[in-house]
Amino acid sequence: MKSILNPICILILLTVYALPVHLFAQLSKGGLPSSFSLAIAPDTGNVVTITPPSVDKLALEDQKTPLPYRFAVNLPADLELASAGQMFPAANGTRVWRLNIKSPGAHGLILYFDRFHIPEGGSVYVYNTRRTQLLGAFTALNNNNISTFATGLIFGDELTIEYNAPAELPLPDLHISEVGHAYRGISERTDPTGFKGSGICEVNINCQEGVNWQKQKRSVTRIAVKRNGSSFWCTGSLLDNTRHDGKPYVLTADHCGKGTSVTDVSQWIFYFNYEGAGCPDPTAEPALKSMTGASLVAHGGDAGNTGSDFFLVLLKSNIPESYNVYYNGWNRETIPPSPSGTCIHHPQGDIKKISTYTSSLQPAHWVGNPALCHWRVSWSGTPDGHGTTEGGSSGSPLFDNQGFLVGTLTGGDSGCDSVSLNLPDYYGMFSYSWDKNGTDSLSILKCWLDPDNTGLMSLQGWSWSVGKPLENSRVTIWPNPVTDRLNLKSTMSDGKIMQVTLTDVLGNTLVRSGWNIGSDQEKQVDMSRFASGVYFLRITDGEHRIVRKLIKQ
To answer: Average model confidence (pLDDT) for the chain?
Structure first.
């Protein structure tokens, strides 16, 4: 087994109208397009048609390469505001531009932008032809430093993109370079992507099997992976680091991300909380809460051929508090973990499922891989089914019975047919991913998840988004109003690690830092560099929190 004792941790981030409208959260401002609110009839004549792919040809390709689970191909497009669509003034002085895009036979469409810049005051919406599904408003807040973007799926084979802005504003720089044509992964064309697509043996996360995994499930995200002209379903999960600073690291499999470009990863779409409310399959699709864009941080294992098959990315935006996510704890011990545990995943891009094992994990080789860098696991039947894994589960987290992440899914032979129920699956060892896939920060996890080199072998998870109120008497904050320095003092002596976050009124994070109570009972926040106005201070230990309104003079 290859062993790297002293990897070099040089932290480098790779630059890597009458029908009800269903609003889908995707880090957007909300609201309705002017064509909706002003009852402007749909524009049915201005349609750009994208030639669809051959489904038969795709089926042959998918037989040869079943993993990761491809659900869409990305068709070349060259559509920009200056030359496509139609612009006209609305009655309230707002300028409205619309363009319809169609790819016949698609189960759903995704728009990929290689230029995306919206001026302050402008809004972009995307919706289906019946106006029952709406994404947006996307605004200047969605701009990023490499000007890329992607929308969530719009169901069906036609959509409308609409831009609204005051007449005096310049046009946005919007260029659609590809249109994702979803050809499978949807049970019915009128249904959402992936919904009800998994095997009948799978167990929903909110069945009794998931009762003890309600924290960990909040970490798991369905990922629409864009790569090499196609889109794939994979699963990933949020990971905590030893600073508990809330950095949104998502861990998935290298075979999901291998070969992706910087632009590709910046257009990945992450779906959180995609699950049924109870044990039975829901009749309607759960709400889609998504985020677009990430940067590659580190990866290793050559898609599982030479190592543990991990792919670590950092989301480009902070996760909204309303998403109520959880950052997984982990265990990097090299000995086999406890003799039971679970995997939480999105098979076939379906809602969140849980699979259970009740016999010890075994160190194993992945097919053709000489390194002993995977855990072999066999799944057990439970009261509500016999959860396994499927295409779309790739990259999902494997947990021991203490709730620690110990591996990520590479692949295997399990399935819902009677022959495959008890066949094994293979998970890249977290301990191997930690420091054995390479010699620098770009090929191991250690440098990112233990940036201060604490040497911790395991780390408890972290609930960043929510918490019960913390007793005011335990933390004192002064002065308020504040001019230069804000002082924080704690009366606690239980060694808690607190996180301090300062945001402006728009929710933008200005300061985020750790506070190790026990070794440092006081902390200061430098406010001198901020303009006069209203700010919000949030202090949390992952279970409790304080929120204070501050006035900066």
So the answer is: 87
234's CB contacts (< 8 A; 6+ apart) are 68, 69, 222, 223, 225, 252, 253, 256, 392, 394, 395
Pairing of strands 94-102, 158-166: antiparallel
Cα distances (Å, whole numbers) of residue 296 to 15, 288, 319: 7, 24, 17
Contact 198, 350 (CB under 8 A): yes
Distance CA 217, CA 6 (A): 34
The string of pLDDT tens digits covering residues 457-503 is: 999 888 765 555 555 557 888 999 999 999 988 876 566 777 888 88
User: pLDDT digits over 118-129, tens only?
Assistant: 999 999 999 998
* 4 pLDDT tier (thresholds 50, 70, 90): very low
Phi/psi for 490 (5° steps) reads: -115, 145
* Cα distance between residue 107 and residue 409, in whole Å: 28
Q: How far is the C-alpha of 514 from the C-alpha of 497, rounded, in Å?
A: 7
For residues 138-163, give the mean pLDDT.
92
Report the distance separating Cα 72 and Cα 75, nearest Å: 9
The span from the CA of 298 to the CA of 316, in Å, is 15
Higher pLDDT, 378 or 501: 378
What do you get for the CA distance between the two ends of the chain, in Å? 60
pLDDT score for 355: 98
Is the pLDDT at 188 greater than 70? The verdict is no
Choose among 247, 242, 35: nearest CA to 124: 35
- The token pair at 216 is 């960990």
Torsions phi, psi for 531 (to 5 deg): -70, 160
Determine the Cα–Cα distance for residues 46 and 98; give it in Å rounded to an integer. 8
Peptide bond into 479 cis (omega under 30): yes
Task: Say which DSSP state 262 is in.
Answer: H
Contact predicate 216/356, CB 8 Å: no
Domains and CATH numbers, the chain: 22-182 (2.60.120.290), 208-449 (2.40.10.10), 468-552 (2.60.40.3080)
- In angstroms, the CA 87 to CA 78 distance is 18
User: 447 burial class (0-12, 13-18, 19+ CB within 10 angstroms)?
Assistant: buried
Q: How many residues does the chain have?
A: 553
SS3 35: helix
Rounded Cα–Cα distance for residues 108 and 102 (Å): 10
How many angstroms separate the CA atoms of 291 and 262, rounded? 17
Helix (H) or strand (E) holding 62: helix 55-64
Q: What is the pLDDT, as a whole number, of residue 73?
A: 96
